[in-house]
Structures are given as structure tokens and as C-alpha cells.
Write a structure and sequence with these properties.
Shape: globular
CATH superfamily: TonB-dependent receptor, beta-barrel domain
CATH class: Mainly Beta
Helix content: under 10%
CATH topology: Maltoporin, Chain A
Strand content: over 45%
Number of helices: 5
Number of domains: 1
Structural class: mainly beta
Distance between the termini: 54 Å
Number of strands: 44
Radius of gyration: 25 Å
Largest sheet: 22 strands, antiparallel, barrel
CATH architecture: Beta Barrel
């Protein structure tokens, strides 16, 4: 760990003189004297006001509309592949994922994500919504480190802010169609413009996908298991009755159905029998999809929100009201072996109401502030019915009610022309009520944050930040016969971060470096067992250290390079035997926090070649390296390092584009996610397979 930190510090030392350069160098065309292309300035809204990316004292990866198009970002998994220290893995069903940011993990089942995931300011109030398809998107910002002061519940590890394209005051129409291997067809369409006069605008967006799939179950006559059918629609009306008022009403509907539970056994399965009988070995092959049935799952959600802004002379009052209804089902073979041993059916339904009210000052004064209040309530019913060797087991059912009340604030003050002090806080009071168990508990926490930022020059900013993050505890979804505890505690962390960001060479180089240390208390981990129970446990103490380096450069007018480097090292410093966990504490204490690659690297090259005055060919190569990953708390199961390559070629005209693309060009096999049998009580280890190479073509047109 010390060696890795020394390397990070040496990288920082190399970056400092570049970012602090007071005399940037611009390349010039000798004939015309004109300067060559520079990197586009990125404006972010991380602090509820428009600011240059380089002026915000946080570690942020930002994607513009052009970036989203160039990288074909359609889900958060693609965002993660381009963001240091962010990992997103699909597994089990269309609505389930495991997201890890700086070693802070996703809690599945009725648990909560480690980031605040927001679309147009509306928080995704169900963990099943982080897997939704992203379409007609304007920008994406990934904020690392605790962000509860401004972005609320579950922002213990960071925030992902998605902004969709807004209604336009002139008619606009768009069409996108792609076809790729696996009989994968995607159609996207959008329309926007005024209704009557310019005081009322609309935007409507549609995405439809029909995929037969590529992964096969050879033991079910080659049946495709990774199929998907999805329909998503978003409509927005924007009312602007005066210069001060803005009212946006948005409705969204999504219906996604796809394959489920096509884990592969990572070991030979066995059925334990009471002594003195020997366990029965299944004799199954390993790392082959061999479920006894083709699993099916779906996620359907409806969401309605209203965002109201009123502009004072000195600031903005904002109200965001949202309601969502989410339904999900999953039917799958759970043991994943050739033997018909364990099957499971899951029903998950929730209704959520949320209200946020905030007041933000304008950005022109020396003192800038944000203050607000938040209310959230959710009713969620989740049932897991298990069948063991053909015999039904009493289901794990949970009727859960959540209520959260919070207040938050953020103050930034310019101590001098170059020095900014930021103080922030959030107070959360969250009460889960498990009506099935007849239990209730309240978790509350203050989450302060302090940041000091210094502008070394117009092109370089350094900052230090200390912030506290919090995620409430709750109640486990228990089945009869399970040994897990009925509940789990809240978790909290204190994050220490130092960063440097800026630009040089006349805007042809932009970079950012962040180093962090996390002191973690009662970190939550998701586990399950063969009874159908889904549970979270707490690890008393752990620590995580790491950093991120991001660079964007334009070495020539036609060439852009992107580099992202992430590093995390960790240690579980305190652990004690936990009921329901069969692995003893002595095998876990001192291990690394599992789930996040120790090293991650992404490198992108984009080249533009002008064919004529109105057309160009754009080629893009993306390389990603994911370092060694520990899957389990005792670190016995690992994913070795591997490399992925994506490639695309586009012909672009003024209003249309045709593209040939290849994802996972070299068809690399790896494990997306893994569960060790000794932790979950299944007959075998289970592993989620990676997506194979997919080659396709895409056509888009704007009218």
C-alpha cells in the first residue's frame, strides 16, 4: 500500500508543474497564425449552480452530450468503465446490479445503493432503478466522496447526476437505430418544440429494445439466456409563465423484461446430508451456464415529478416533488447446477413519495449558500419463495415502510480572491418499520463537510476536504430457518481527500488528481442463503486508501486522448463472528474490502478526419484495464486482472451519423460477479458471466 501511495505522490509531483504553468503554450498554424483546437470547457451543476469543472473542489468525472454519443453511453455500466474507482456489474436479473465507488458497496435486496442516483434532480428511490436505460441524455456527472450535504440519502460514496435533454423553443426531432449481434435491435426517437407560444415547451423521448441474446445454456438445447425486451418513454412539459417562474412536469414509464439467474457454478456442487452419511456430489462442470430452466425477470416502473423554480433577484427557490411505482419479478434456478435442487421466485413492489425544497443564492456574491429540507416515504413489499428438491419452503416476506426527514445546507465563502472555504452539513432522521416482524428503529446522523480550495493560478485549483457519510440501517428479509440477525446497523465513514485540478498549454491539457483516505465504521455487506433470506451484515472497522488521476489532451487538432487511473487499497481492521456467516472472524480480519479492483485504467483515443467541408470520419479506440479483484470477505476467491477493448468508426454529416462499433473486441471472458458457497450456503460457488463481443451498426439523424 505504501509503495502504491508513493507512486501516486510521484504522479502528483509530475502533474503539479504542468497545472501550475502560468504561461500556457498554444500551437499555431504557421500559415494562418490561428491556434489549434482546445478542450471543450465543461460546465457542471454539482453545487446547484453552473460552474466550470475546474472550479469545483471535488473529484468529478463529467460527460457532455458529445461524450455520451461518442462512448455510446446507454446505461450506468458504461459510465463506470470510463470513471476511475467506479465499478458497476450486472448480475442475477434486469433490475439487479452491484455498484461500488471507492470501495463503498451496493446493498441489494431491500438495501440501499452507495450513491445518490438522480435524473433531472429526482432521486432514484429504489435500488432497482440504477439499472435503467439512459436515453436522450444531455450530461452525466459522477461525484466521488460523501455528497450527503447536497444530494441526500445514500450519498455516502458519492452521487451520479443525470440530466436529460430539455425541451427546445424550436421544433427538433431525432431518430436513432442500431442492430448488433444477438439479434439486438434498438430504436430511439425524440421530438421537442413549443406548444403554441414559447411559454410552453415539450419534449418526448422513446427507446425500444428487442434482443434475442448471445449467451447460451448448452444443457437446454442452446437456449439464449441474456435476452431482453424493453420499452421506455419520457415526456416533459415546461411552463414558463414569466421570467421568474419555471415549471417542469415529467412522466416516465419503463417496462424491461430479460433473462435471469444465469450464474455459472464456480465449484462442483454437493448436497450435505446428516452425519454419518457422506455428502452427495452433483458432478456438474464448472464455469458453464447450466441452469435447469431459463430464468425470466422484469422491472416495470412509473414515475411522475414536478420541478418548480422561482427566481428572486438574489437567488432561486426550487421545489421537486416525485412519485414512483416500481414492480419487479424474478423466476430462476438458484443452485445453478445440473441438478434441480433450489429454485426461487421473487416479487418486489414499492411506492415512493419524495419532496425536496431548497433555496440557493446567486453565484455573483462573495458568500454563496444553499439550504433545504427533504421528506421521503416508501412502502415496499418483497417476497422470496424457495423450492428445495421440489418441496416448497415458507417464503421470506417483508412488508417494509421507510420514512426519512432531512435538512441540509452548504455555504461557500471567498476568504480572499484565491481562497474559498466551504462548510456543509446534512441531518438525516430515517425510520424503517418492518411490519412483518413488528419491528421499528430510528437512525439519525449529522453529516458535516468542510473544504478549503486555493486557486494557484487562473488554470489550477488545489483543495482539501473532510466529510462524513452515512447510510441508515434496517431489517433483513428473513425466511423461516435462517440464522441471520433480524436487522443491521447504520454505517458511517469519514473521508479525507486532497486534490489538484486544472488546465495547461492553452487549454489543450486538462487534468485532475485526488488522493483519499476513508475511515469506515460498520460497513454493510449483502449476503443471502438457501432459505431465500436476503441479509445485510456489518463489519465493525475498515479503512480504504486510494486515488484517481484523470487527463484529457488534444496533442493535435484532429486527435483527443483521455486517461483515467484509479487505485484503492483497503483492510478490514476489526471483525467479529456474526450469526449466519459460516466463515470465522480469524479468516476475515486483516483481509481487503472485497468488490473493487485494486487498479483500474481507461484510455481513449479519438481521431477526426475531414472527408469534405461537411463530413468527417471519426474513429475511437477505448482500452480498459481492471486489476485484481477480491470477491469474498476472506479474500480466497479472486478475479485476475484483465483488459477490454472497444472500437468504433463513424461517418458524420451535419445532421446524420452512421457508425460501426465493436464492444469487447477481443471477446474477453471474465467474471462479472461472484458469490462463495461458504458464505451463502448454496451447493456451489456461483459466478456471473461477462458479456461476449458484440459488433453492430448504428444510424442516427436529426431533423
Amino acid at each position: 500500500m505504501i509503495f502504491a501511495l508513493n507512486r501516486s505522490m510521484r504522479a502528483a509531483a509530475m502533474l503539479v508543474p504542468i497545472l501550475l504553468a502560468d504561461s500556457p503554450v498554444c500551437a499555431q498554424d504557421p500559415a494562418s497564425g490561428e491556434t489549434s483546437a482546445v478542450i471543450e470547457e465543461i460546465v457542471v451543476i454539482a453545487r446547484y449552480r453552473s460552474e466550470n469543472l475546474g472550479d469545483v473542489p471535488d473529484s468529478i468525472t463529467a460527460f457532455t452530450a458529445a461524450d455520451i454519443d461518442a462512448h455510446r453511453i446507454e446505461r450506468v455500466n458504461r459510465v463506470a468503465s470510463l470513471t476511475p474507482n467506479l465499478r458497476f456489474s450486472d448480475d442475477q436479473e434486469v433490475g439487479v446490479s452491484t455498484l461500488i465507488i471507492r470501495g463503498v458497496r451496493q446493498n441489494r435486496g431491500t438495501g440501499q445503493p452507495p450513491v445518490s442516483f438522480r435524473v433531472d434532480g429526482v432521486s432514484a428511490t429504489n435500488n432497482l432503478l440504477t439499472t435503467q436505460d439512459l436515453f436522450d441524455i444531455e450530461s452525466i456527472e459522477v461525484l466521488r466522496g460523501p455528497q450527503g450535504a447536497l444530494y441526500g440519502r445514500n450519498a455516502i460514496g458519492g452521487a451520479i447526476l443525470v440530466s436529460t435533454r430539455q425541451p427546445s423553443d424550436v421544433p427538433e426531432y431525432g431518430l436513432r437505430f442500431s442492430v448488433s449481434e444477438g439479434d439486438d435491435y434498438v430504436l430511439g426517437a425524440s421530438a421537442s418544440g413549443p406548444i403554441g407560444d414559447d411559454s410552453t415547451l415539450y419534449r418526448a423521448s422513446l427507446r425500444i429494445q428487442d434482443r434475442a441474446g448471445q449467451l447460451e445454456n448448452a444443457y437446454l438445447d442452446g437456449a439464449k439466456v441474456d435476452f431482453k425486451e424493453a420499452v421506455l418513454f419520457r415526456g416533459r412539459l415546461l411552463f414558463q409563465p414569466s421570467d421568474r417562474w419555471s415549471i417542469a412536469v415529467t412522466g416516465q414509464y419503463a417496462d424491461q423484461e430479460g433473462g435471469s439467474g444465469y450464474f455459472m457454478p464456480g465449484s462442483e456442487g454437493y448436497l450435505p446430508l446428516p452425519p454419518p452419511a457422506e455428502p452427495i456430489l452433483f458432478g456438474n462442470p464448472t464455469y458453464e451456464i447450466q441452469s435447469n430452466s431459463v430464468g425470466v425477470s422484469y422491472v416495470q416502473f412509473e414515475e411522475l415529478s414536478a420541478k418548480i423554480d422561482y427566481e428572486f433577484d438574489w437567488g432561486t427557490l426550487t421545489s421537486i416533488t416525485s412519485y414512483s411505482d416500481v414492480e419487479s419479478e424474478n423466476d430462476q434456478d438458484l443452485d445453478q447446477t445440473l441438478v434441480d435442487a433450489i429454485n426461487i421466485e421473487v416479487d418486489d413492489n414499492s411506492q415512493t413519495f419524495a419532496q425536496e425544497l431548497r433555496l440557493a443564492s446567486d453565484a455573483d456574491s462573495r458568500l454563496r449558500w444553499v439550504a433545504g429540507a427533504y421528506y421521503f416515504t416508501q412502502d415496499r413489499f418483497r417476497s422470496l419463495a424457495t423450492t428445495f428438491l421440489g418441496f416448497p419452503v415458507p417464503p421470506a416476506a417483508q412488508d417494509l415502510e421507510l420514512e426519512n426527514i432531512a435538512a441540509f445546507g452548504n455555504i461557500s465563502y471567498d476568504l480572499s480572491e484565491d481562497l474559498e472555504l466551504t462548510l456543509a452539513f446534512r441531518y438525516d432522521n430515517e425510520t424503517p418499520r418492518d411490519k412483518t416482524q413488528g419491528r421499528s428503529e430510528t437512525f439519525d446522523e449529522w453529516q458535516p463537510k468542510i473544504s478549503l480550495a486555493y486557486g494557484f493560478s487562473d488554470n489550477a485549483l488545489g483543495y482539501v476536504t473532510i466529510g462524513k457519510g452515512f447510510r441508515a440501517g434496517g431489517f433483513n428479509n428473513l425466511a423461516p430457518g435462517s440464522n441471520f440477525e433480524p436487522g443491521f446497523d447504520a454505517e458511517s465513514l469519514v473521508s479525507y481527500e486532497a486534490g489538484l485540478k486544472g488546465s495547461a498549454f492553452g487549454g489543450r491539457l486538462r487534468g485532475g488528481l485526488a488522493l483519499f483516505y476513508i475511515d469506515y465504521t460498520d460497513q454493510q455487506y449483502f449476503l443471502f442463503d438457501q432459505t431465500g433470506t436476503q441479509a445485510n451484515i456489518n463489519v465493525p472497522k475498515s479503512k480504504i486508501v486510494g486515488g484517481e488521476l484523470e487527463l484529457t489532451a488534444v496533442p493535435a487538432e484532429s486527435l483527443t486522448l483521455n486517461l483515467g487511473l484509479g487505485f484503492t487499497d483497503s483492510e478490514i481492521t476489526e471483525y467479529e463472528d456474526i450469526v449466519g456467516v459460516l466463515v470465522p472472524a480469524v479468516a476475515i480480519e486483516g483481509s481487503k474490502v472485497p468488490g473493487a479492483p485494486i487498479w483500474s485504467l481507461n484510455l481513449g483515443l479519438e481521431h477526426h478526419w475531414a472527408v469534405s467541408n461537411s463530413s468527417e470520419v471519426v474513429s475511437r479506440l477505448d482500452y480498459e484495464h481492471r486489476g485484481k479483484t477480491y470477491w469474498t470477505l476472506d479474500n480466497l476467491d479472486t478475479q485476475p486482472a484483465y483488459d477490454l477493448v472497444n472500437l468504433s468508426f463513424s461517418l458524420k454529416k451535419q445532421n446524420w451519423e452512421a457508425r460501426l462499433f465493436a464492444n469487447n473486441l477481443f471477446d474477453k471472458d471474465y467474471i462479472e460477479w461472484f458469490f462463495g458457497a461458504r458464505f451463502i450456503g448454496l451447493p456451489a460457488d456461483i459466478a456471473w458471466p461477462s458479456a461476449p463481443r458484440q459488433i453492430g451498426v448504428e444510424y442516427s439523424r436529426r431533423f
